[in-house]
Design a protein that fits this description.
Number of helices: 11
Distance between the termini: 54 Å
Structural class: alpha+beta
Number of strands: 11
Strand content: 15-25%
Order of helices and strands: HEHEEHEHEHEEHEEHHEEHHH
Shape: flat
Largest sheet: 4 strands, mixed
Helix content: 25-40%
CATH topology of the domain at 23-30 and 159-254: GMP Synthetase, Chain A, domain 3
CATH class of the domain at 23-30 and 159-254: Alpha Beta
Radius of gyration: 23 Å
Length: 387
């Protein structure tokens, strides 16, 4: 009776061991009141205001928030006329920074504007009527990734999905008025035990939330473990989760009053929580001619289709562009051994990754970007790349 070559048996044993490997994976989220997300939300609010007036606006808006000052910088070319100061104040007011006693509040911040028009050299490559190939080219070089997994109904990794639910839940409870001691700035972190590729248990939950001076740590910890946790974690909640709440003991000073915020600094929380690769490009404040944003959204859209079609349980798409050229330099598909990669590659090769085609397919020349800013750009209903 044949027993097989020793190397073959060893490889099979190694594969079986890897398949059953146990490990813990963690992801973090930040709330809409975190200084970096305040900056992102202001940038996307300005972008939406321009797109509402002129869908062909070219917007690359960066924002810095610190104490009583908001700085907006970048390049904007548009037929629209937007009152930046009004947009900035309304965005801050929507987030919830309205306390006149704090340095950073909607009514009293001062605005510094450092805005110019987009370089005509970029327009030569991006605008179809100026492009040498007479089609819209990529707004910059770069690599973008998209990811999807069958481990949750949202096709998102469980740790980042639950981390976002915690920070979003804090904001919901703050706005409800039931917990007036919750202030806008917050962070969360969730650790999940995996067996092979399957999440089996939430092990640890970390929540740090800004709060009123009169609220003690015990009250906050009780709220997180007894109210917030069970409600937002749902079936993943259990009594043995290790909760760590406001570990420094006090978080009264927060938001841009205490810390500096800048656009594009939460790119891992914005995407897959570290479970997939990231090309390095941020999203907020960029119109869809910037492939950092639109191509990353399309890669997510494509990865979702592959999982939905049953071609793989876990998929990552990479695309690479050169500035001014419409057709991508490369498109790569990775199913991580969870499906037959050849049909997946055939599926992807039949799709059009040129910027104009992406914008048309996902209908991206609309003021939809404020809806994407907070609690992850992926895994939320109502966004065209999540259909």
């Amino acid at each position: 009776m044949a027993t097989g070559h020793p190397r073959t048996k060893k490889a099979a044993a190694s594969a079986q061991s890897a398949k059953a490997e146990s490990y813990t994976f963690s992801s973090e989220s930040v709330s809409e009141g975190h200084p970096d997300k305040v900056s992102d939300y202001i940038a996307d609010s300005i972008l939406d205001a321009y797109l509402e007036q002129d869908p062909k606006s070219r917007v690359a808006c960066e924002v810095l928030c610190k104490e009583n000052t908001v700085v907006i910088g970048g390049e904007i070319s548009s037929k629209g006329r937007v009152e930046h100061e009004a947009i900035v104040r309304e965005a801050i007011r929507t987030i919830g920074y309205n306390d006149l006693s704090a340095p950073f509040n909607a009514d009293r911040v001062r605005l510094v504007q450092l805005i110019s028009t987009q370089s005509p050299d970029i327009a030569l490559g991006v605008d179809a009527d100026k492009n040498l190939d007479h089609e819209q080219g990529a707004g910059d070089q770069g690599i973008m990734f998209g990811y999807a997994t069958r481990e949750t109904p949202e096709m998102m990794p469980l740790p980042i999905l639950l981390a976002h639910k915690l920070t979003a839940g804090l904001a919901e409870d703050r706005r409800s008025g039931k917990y007036p001691w919750i202030y806008p700035d917050a962070k969360s972190q969730v650790s999940v035990l995996y067996e092979g590729e399957k999440p089996v248990l939430v092990t640890d939950v970390l929540v740090s939330t800004q709060h009123s001076p009169k609220t003690d740590r015990a009250q906050i910890a009780s709220y997180v473990s007894d109210k917030l946790g069970p409600r937002v974690l749902g079936k993943w909640f259990h009594k043995d989760i290790r909760f760590v709440v406001n570990p420094t003991g006090s978080f009264v000073l927060g938001g841009p009053s205490a810390d500096c915020g800048v656009t594009g600094r939460k790119i891992i929380a914005d995407t897959y929580g570290g479970a997939a690769r990231h090309g390095g490009g941020a999203f907020s404040g960029k119109d869809p001619s910037k492939v950092d944003r639109s191509a990353a959204y399309f890669c997510r859209y494509v990865a979702r289709q592959l999982v939905a079609e049953g071609l793989a349980d876990r998929v990552e798409i990479q695309v690479a562009y050169a500035i001014g050229i419409a057709k991508p330099l490369s498109v790569k598909v990775d199913t991580f051994g969870t499906g037959d990669v050849h049909p997946a590659v055939d599926f992807v090769q039949g799709l059009d990754f040129r910027p104009a085609a992406i914008i048309e397919r996902l209908d991206l020349l609309r003021p939809i970007y404020r809806r994407s800013t907070n609690y992850g750009h992926f895994g939320k209903k109502g966004l065209p790349w999540e259909v």
